# Entry
Amino acid sequence: MNSTILLASATTIAGILSLGVTTLRLTREFAVATSFGIFACALLSFLFFPAFLAILKPPKEKHAELVLAGTLSRVMEGLGRTVYRFRVLLVVIALGIVLVFGLLAGKLEYNTDTISYFPGHDRVIQDMYAITDKLGGFDELKVVLHAPGDEQNYFLDAEVLEPVSRLEEELEGYPDISYVSSFVSYLKYLNQVMYGSYGLPEKRSLILLLSRYLKTLQGGDVNPVLSGIIDPEGTTLTLSLRIFNSSTGRFVDERGVRRILAFLEQSIGEIIPGEIDTEIQGISLKYLALSDMIREDLLSSMLISLAAVFAIAALAYRSLKFGIFTLIPLFIGIMMNFILMVLFRIPLDLLTIMVSSIVIGVGVDDAIHFIIRFRQEWKGGPVTPEVLSRTLQVSGRPIFLTTVSIVGGLAVLLFASFKPIVYFGVLVLISLSATCIGTLLFLPAFLSFMKGRR
# Structure
């Protein structure tokens, strides 16, 4: 068992350590701590566990017979013949999983809305949703306009403010923008108070009057909101937008923010003159950057873990072919993971991003156990049903029991109140189960087509 334990531990550590390339510090800490725990378990398996077994009485003969003659072993032996019989169908099913994955992978959702993580029936969450519905959201975006060449008093001209006014009216008509505030909106209100007409003033004197009022507030504590809508030199103008999900009355999610951002960029491009530099600011944009970071981290960690597992397996087997075969159950597990995420609308977030690397690191153990035994049973030439039956008779039982024990241990995560932990538990359970099925069904089906020397 030394080669199995060593190879399984090395690939598991390599798979999970791939999370060390991610940008988020918490994910890197998880990778280091978990990898150290696996190393400790491997060390105990080599030293402590054999010493402990040596102290115990040897197993009774009836218990020893269960390894090859027990019900589970006999089922696995019959499974080997069944797999060989339907090997073509199993290969077609595996290719079908690849096709479904290719069709659905682009529909994977990303979630950076931390409020949605908590139970919806919680009183605090209900109160926050109620306030959001009344106020039209808490999230704010700012559209900052810069005068060409930093020309002073540029935004104190009525002709310059006219396209800004049209932009503001355009934004007010968008359903997910609940509130727009700017120098222009206060100027229109002041014109209504002074002359009874809501709109831009015809005389520049009113523009200069409001700018002087606001200039007195610059740097003061009287009203920081008003003091930031235009700079003292009149070279920078800021529009503040409050955004929310108008259809649900709740916080806007990532897709909603991206829609709003696209609408802003299109409206600015159509209305604001090209010589005016514009930029969009807001905390929501940082969440979009976080979402992009999650995408990059997922791809990089998954590719690194697959490459590391393949390299270790190929070197251990001294065969590129068997290194590739080791990856087949992993691809089945990863693809099933993403397919289920799309079908049940489970988003990628700071926790579920780690599932793929964990599945690669932990799920590869089954494939390693199977291939090591297969290489011992296969004597070269065409793979016969007897080879698969003998391989599964010995290795199928521990592969199945190992998966059941891991799934049973992680099932406690399903009772968590924090949604990402529940999602994490569900995805790991299903993915590892799919990896186990991939090892017991799809891997022997692909191996059955091998021919040649051992």
Summary: Strands lie at 139-146, 177-181, 236-243, 277-281. The mean pLDDT is 86. Residues 383 and 407 are 32 Å apart (CA to CA).
